[in-house]
Amino acid sequence: xxxxxxxxxxxxxxxxxxxxxxxxxxxxxxxxxxxxxxxxxxxxxxxxxxxxxxxxxxxxxxxxxxxxxxxxxxxxxx
Length: 78
Known about the structure:
Elements lengths: L7 E4 L5 H12 L3 E6 L2 H11 L6 E5 L5 H11 L1
Parallel strand pairs: 1-2, 2-3
């Protein structure tokens, strides 16, 4: 897999399970990762558990069924 250095990966549903594994894998490839979950507490906890070295891990929360929530998530990332 190519390097993801200088890339930002938003991984939805990444507070646990497969999503968390995908986010961790993207981190290992050099990406900055944004952990997403339905609530900020769980997203922040998952992000804190993944932080290592100088790679950036942020957390966002929101309902992906809601357009305004999706816009807010993208605004927070970019």
